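FORM 7B: Structural annotation worksheet

SECTION A. Query
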Amino acid sequence: METRYANHPEEIKRYNTDELRQHFLVEKLFEAGEVHLTYTHVDRLIFGGVTPSDKELTIKLDKELGVTYFLERRELGVINIGETGSVILDGQEYDMQRHDGLYVGRGTKEVLFRSKDPNNPAKFYINSSPAHHTYPTVKIDIKEIKPLEMGEQGTLNERKIHQYIHPNVCESCQLQMGLTILNPGSVWNTMPAHTHERRSEVYLYFDMEEDTRAFHFMGEPDETRHLVLKNEQAVISPSWSIHTGTATSNYTFIWGMCGENITYDDMDHVKMEELR
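SECTION B. Predicted structure
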Protein backbone atom coordinates (compact mmCIF):
# COMPACT_ATOMS: atom_id res chain seq x y z
CA MET A 1 0.00 0.00 0.00
CA GLU A 2 1.33 3.39 -1.03
CA THR A 3 0.86 6.42 1.24
CA ARG A 4 0.04 9.92 0.01
CA TYR A 5 0.21 12.88 2.38
CA ALA A 6 -2.03 15.93 2.44
CA ASN A 7 -1.04 19.05 0.47
CA HIS A 8 -1.75 22.71 1.16
CA PRO A 9 -3.32 24.51 -1.83
CA GLU A 10 -0.50 27.05 -1.80
CA GLU A 11 1.99 24.23 -2.41
CA ILE A 12 0.59 23.04 -5.69
CA LYS A 13 0.92 26.49 -7.24
CA ARG A 14 4.64 25.70 -7.44
CA TYR A 15 4.32 22.07 -8.64
CA ASN A 16 5.42 21.15 -12.12
CA THR A 17 3.60 18.45 -14.09
CA ASP A 18 5.62 15.55 -12.66
CA GLU A 19 5.16 16.75 -9.07
CA LEU A 20 1.43 17.20 -9.54
CA ARG A 21 1.10 13.68 -10.91
CA GLN A 22 3.29 12.27 -8.14
CA HIS A 23 1.05 13.69 -5.40
CA PHE A 24 -2.46 13.30 -6.85
CA LEU A 25 -2.47 10.74 -9.68
CA VAL A 26 -2.52 6.97 -9.18
CA GLU A 27 -1.52 5.29 -12.42
CA LYS A 28 -1.64 1.57 -11.58
CA LEU A 29 -4.61 0.01 -9.80
CA PHE A 30 -5.42 -3.25 -11.58
CA GLU A 31 -2.91 -6.06 -12.12
CA ALA A 32 -3.86 -9.74 -12.38
CA GLY A 33 -3.22 -11.55 -9.10
CA GLU A 34 -2.36 -8.36 -7.20
CA VAL A 35 -3.79 -5.83 -4.76
CA HIS A 36 -2.81 -2.19 -5.36
CA LEU A 37 -3.95 0.27 -2.70
CA THR A 38 -3.30 3.91 -1.88
CA TYR A 39 -3.76 5.44 1.56
CA THR A 40 -4.35 9.19 1.39
CA HIS A 41 -4.13 11.25 4.55
CA VAL A 42 -6.86 13.42 3.05
CA ASP A 43 -9.76 12.13 5.19
CA ARG A 44 -7.79 8.84 5.60
CA LEU A 45 -9.42 7.25 2.58
CA ILE A 46 -8.00 3.98 1.21
CA PHE A 47 -8.72 3.21 -2.43
CA GLY A 48 -7.42 0.89 -5.12
CA GLY A 49 -7.86 -2.27 -7.14
CA VAL A 50 -8.10 -5.97 -6.28
CA THR A 51 -7.71 -8.26 -9.31
CA PRO A 52 -7.88 -11.97 -8.39
CA SER A 53 -6.88 -14.43 -11.10
CA ASP A 54 -6.17 -18.09 -10.24
CA LYS A 55 -6.49 -17.64 -6.46
CA GLU A 56 -8.48 -15.62 -3.98
CA LEU A 57 -7.08 -12.33 -2.72
CA THR A 58 -7.61 -10.48 0.54
CA ILE A 59 -6.55 -7.18 2.10
CA LYS A 60 -4.24 -7.39 5.11
CA LEU A 61 -3.49 -4.03 6.66
CA ASP A 62 -3.46 -4.79 10.38
CA LYS A 63 0.05 -3.46 11.08
CA GLU A 64 -0.33 -0.49 8.75
CA LEU A 65 -3.58 0.61 10.42
CA GLY A 66 -2.74 -0.42 13.98
CA VAL A 67 -5.64 -2.90 14.22
CA THR A 68 -6.04 -6.67 14.30
CA TYR A 69 -7.89 -6.85 10.94
CA PHE A 70 -8.64 -4.50 8.05
CA LEU A 71 -12.26 -3.56 8.80
CA GLU A 72 -12.00 -3.46 12.58
CA ARG A 73 -12.54 0.31 12.51
CA ARG A 74 -13.42 0.87 8.84
CA GLU A 75 -16.25 0.44 6.33
CA LEU A 76 -15.76 -0.64 2.73
CA GLY A 77 -17.30 0.00 -0.66
CA VAL A 78 -16.69 -2.29 -3.67
CA ILE A 79 -17.64 -1.90 -7.33
CA ASN A 80 -16.65 -4.54 -9.90
CA ILE A 81 -15.52 -2.96 -13.19
CA GLY A 82 -14.24 -6.24 -14.66
CA GLU A 83 -15.73 -9.62 -15.44
CA THR A 84 -17.82 -11.82 -13.13
CA GLY A 85 -16.47 -12.53 -9.66
CA SER A 86 -17.53 -12.74 -6.04
CA VAL A 87 -16.74 -11.30 -2.64
CA ILE A 88 -16.81 -13.57 0.41
CA LEU A 89 -17.52 -11.85 3.74
CA ASP A 90 -17.03 -13.98 6.84
CA GLY A 91 -18.02 -17.04 4.81
CA GLN A 92 -20.99 -15.54 2.97
CA GLU A 93 -20.48 -15.22 -0.79
CA TYR A 94 -21.87 -12.37 -2.89
CA ASP A 95 -21.85 -12.77 -6.67
CA MET A 96 -20.59 -9.66 -8.42
CA GLN A 97 -21.42 -9.05 -12.05
CA ARG A 98 -19.87 -6.16 -13.96
CA HIS A 99 -20.82 -2.82 -12.34
CA ASP A 100 -22.37 -4.51 -9.28
CA GLY A 101 -21.55 -2.91 -5.95
CA LEU A 102 -21.26 -3.90 -2.31
CA TYR A 103 -21.28 -2.01 0.97
CA VAL A 104 -19.43 -3.81 3.78
CA GLY A 105 -20.02 -2.72 7.35
CA ARG A 106 -17.40 -2.19 10.03
CA GLY A 107 -16.34 -5.32 11.92
CA THR A 108 -16.32 -7.78 9.01
CA LYS A 109 -13.25 -9.90 9.72
CA GLU A 110 -12.66 -11.87 6.54
CA VAL A 111 -12.95 -10.28 3.09
CA LEU A 112 -11.99 -12.47 0.13
CA PHE A 113 -12.11 -11.57 -3.56
CA ARG A 114 -12.55 -14.20 -6.27
CA SER A 115 -12.79 -14.26 -10.09
CA LYS A 116 -15.06 -16.74 -11.82
CA ASP A 117 -12.66 -17.09 -14.77
CA PRO A 118 -8.95 -16.54 -14.02
CA ASN A 119 -8.34 -15.64 -17.66
CA ASN A 120 -11.05 -12.96 -17.55
CA PRO A 121 -10.73 -11.62 -14.02
CA ALA A 122 -13.00 -9.43 -12.01
CA LYS A 123 -11.61 -6.00 -11.18
CA PHE A 124 -12.78 -4.89 -7.78
CA TYR A 125 -12.40 -1.17 -7.16
CA ILE A 126 -12.53 -0.40 -3.45
CA ASN A 127 -12.94 2.65 -1.23
CA SER A 128 -12.61 2.43 2.55
CA SER A 129 -13.02 5.11 5.20
CA PRO A 130 -12.88 5.13 9.02
CA ALA A 131 -16.19 4.17 10.63
CA HIS A 132 -17.65 4.71 14.10
CA HIS A 133 -20.69 2.42 13.79
CA THR A 134 -21.58 -0.90 12.16
CA TYR A 135 -24.22 -0.76 9.44
CA PRO A 136 -25.55 -3.83 7.59
CA THR A 137 -23.76 -5.17 4.55
CA VAL A 138 -25.75 -4.49 1.36
CA LYS A 139 -25.34 -5.95 -2.14
CA ILE A 140 -26.09 -3.29 -4.77
CA ASP A 141 -27.18 -4.64 -8.16
CA ILE A 142 -26.59 -2.20 -11.01
CA LYS A 143 -29.84 -3.38 -12.65
CA GLU A 144 -31.85 -2.27 -9.62
CA ILE A 145 -30.48 1.28 -9.52
CA LYS A 146 -32.59 3.96 -11.16
CA PRO A 147 -29.99 6.47 -12.33
CA LEU A 148 -30.27 10.22 -12.14
CA GLU A 149 -30.25 11.55 -15.70
CA MET A 150 -28.51 14.91 -15.90
CA GLY A 151 -26.97 17.25 -18.43
CA GLU A 152 -27.80 18.25 -21.97
CA GLN A 153 -26.51 17.34 -25.41
CA GLY A 154 -25.82 20.99 -26.17
CA THR A 155 -23.39 21.24 -23.24
CA LEU A 156 -21.82 17.83 -23.95
CA ASN A 157 -22.63 16.42 -20.49
CA GLU A 158 -25.55 14.03 -20.80
CA ARG A 159 -24.87 11.42 -18.14
CA LYS A 160 -26.45 8.84 -15.88
CA ILE A 161 -25.48 8.96 -12.21
CA HIS A 162 -25.83 5.64 -10.37
CA GLN A 163 -25.81 6.09 -6.59
CA TYR A 164 -24.47 3.01 -4.80
CA ILE A 165 -23.42 3.88 -1.25
CA HIS A 166 -25.84 6.71 -0.64
CA PRO A 167 -28.63 7.38 1.91
CA ASN A 168 -31.19 6.49 -0.78
CA VAL A 169 -29.68 3.00 -1.05
CA CYS A 170 -27.97 2.00 2.21
CA GLU A 171 -26.69 3.45 5.46
CA SER A 172 -23.03 4.23 6.00
CA CYS A 173 -20.95 6.21 8.45
CA GLN A 174 -19.29 8.62 6.03
CA LEU A 175 -18.47 6.74 2.84
CA GLN A 176 -20.31 7.47 -0.40
CA MET A 177 -19.74 5.88 -3.80
CA GLY A 178 -21.36 6.04 -7.17
CA LEU A 179 -20.81 5.41 -10.86
CA THR A 180 -21.46 7.91 -13.64
CA ILE A 181 -21.77 6.91 -17.30
CA LEU A 182 -21.48 9.59 -19.97
CA ASN A 183 -23.59 9.19 -23.09
CA PRO A 184 -21.86 8.92 -26.47
CA GLY A 185 -21.04 12.42 -27.64
CA SER A 186 -20.77 13.78 -24.09
CA VAL A 187 -17.40 14.43 -22.47
CA TRP A 188 -17.85 16.83 -19.51
CA ASN A 189 -18.56 15.16 -16.18
CA THR A 190 -19.69 18.38 -14.52
CA MET A 191 -19.48 22.05 -15.42
CA PRO A 192 -19.76 24.60 -13.87
CA ALA A 193 -17.29 23.23 -11.36
CA HIS A 194 -17.74 22.96 -7.61
CA THR A 195 -15.79 22.11 -4.49
CA HIS A 196 -16.68 20.02 -1.43
CA GLU A 197 -15.24 22.00 1.46
CA ARG A 198 -16.41 19.41 3.98
CA ARG A 199 -15.42 16.30 2.03
CA SER A 200 -12.63 14.92 -0.12
CA GLU A 201 -13.18 12.80 -3.21
CA VAL A 202 -11.41 10.25 -5.38
CA TYR A 203 -12.21 9.65 -9.05
CA LEU A 204 -11.52 6.48 -11.05
CA TYR A 205 -11.78 6.95 -14.82
CA PHE A 206 -12.40 3.81 -16.89
CA ASP A 207 -14.20 2.25 -19.88
CA MET A 208 -11.88 4.33 -22.06
CA GLU A 209 -10.24 3.26 -25.31
CA GLU A 210 -6.46 2.91 -25.42
CA ASP A 211 -5.99 6.29 -27.11
CA THR A 212 -8.66 8.13 -25.11
CA ARG A 213 -7.41 10.64 -22.54
CA ALA A 214 -9.27 12.29 -19.69
CA PHE A 215 -8.36 15.78 -18.49
CA HIS A 216 -9.11 16.12 -14.79
CA PHE A 217 -9.13 19.72 -13.57
CA MET A 218 -8.15 20.52 -10.00
CA GLY A 219 -6.76 23.34 -7.87
CA GLU A 220 -8.49 26.32 -6.33
CA PRO A 221 -11.05 27.96 -8.64
CA ASP A 222 -8.80 30.92 -9.40
CA GLU A 223 -5.64 28.80 -9.72
CA THR A 224 -6.57 25.73 -11.75
CA ARG A 225 -4.36 22.84 -12.80
CA HIS A 226 -5.02 19.67 -14.76
CA LEU A 227 -3.97 16.02 -14.89
CA VAL A 228 -4.05 13.81 -17.99
CA LEU A 229 -5.28 10.26 -17.28
CA LYS A 230 -5.41 7.01 -19.21
CA ASN A 231 -7.91 4.21 -18.77
CA GLU A 232 -8.29 2.83 -15.22
CA GLN A 233 -6.34 5.55 -13.47
CA ALA A 234 -7.45 7.49 -10.39
CA VAL A 235 -6.99 10.96 -8.98
CA ILE A 236 -7.24 12.36 -5.44
CA SER A 237 -9.37 15.50 -5.15
CA PRO A 238 -8.95 17.40 -1.83
CA SER A 239 -11.79 19.43 -0.34
CA TRP A 240 -10.30 22.76 -1.47
CA SER A 241 -9.98 21.64 -5.07
CA ILE A 242 -12.46 21.89 -7.90
CA HIS A 243 -13.21 18.56 -9.54
CA THR A 244 -14.44 18.62 -13.05
CA GLY A 245 -13.20 16.88 -16.14
CA THR A 246 -13.49 16.24 -19.82
CA ALA A 247 -12.05 13.72 -22.26
CA THR A 248 -11.42 12.98 -25.89
CA SER A 249 -14.42 10.61 -25.91
CA ASN A 250 -17.17 9.49 -23.55
CA TYR A 251 -16.16 7.45 -20.50
CA THR A 252 -17.31 6.15 -17.13
CA PHE A 253 -16.05 7.16 -13.72
CA ILE A 254 -16.54 6.15 -10.11
CA TRP A 255 -16.66 8.83 -7.46
CA GLY A 256 -16.00 8.10 -3.81
CA MET A 257 -16.32 10.62 -0.99
CA CYS A 258 -15.88 10.81 2.75
CA GLY A 259 -15.72 13.61 5.28
CA GLU A 260 -18.01 15.52 7.59
CA ASN A 261 -21.37 14.38 6.24
CA ILE A 262 -23.17 12.17 3.72
CA THR A 263 -25.28 14.86 2.07
CA TYR A 264 -24.78 14.25 -1.64
CA ASP A 265 -25.53 17.81 -2.77
CA ASP A 266 -23.44 19.52 -0.08
CA MET A 267 -21.22 21.38 -2.52
CA ASP A 268 -20.00 24.91 -3.13
CA HIS A 269 -20.69 25.94 -6.72
CA VAL A 270 -18.12 27.96 -8.62
CA LYS A 271 -19.32 30.64 -11.00
CA MET A 272 -17.84 30.47 -14.47
CA GLU A 273 -16.36 33.95 -14.15
CA GLU A 274 -14.42 32.83 -11.06
CA LEU A 275 -12.48 30.14 -12.93
CA ARG A 276 -8.93 30.93 -13.99
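SECTION C. Observations
Residues 17-24 form the longest helix (8 residues). The mean pLDDT is 95.

SECTION D. Sign-off
Analyst initials: ____
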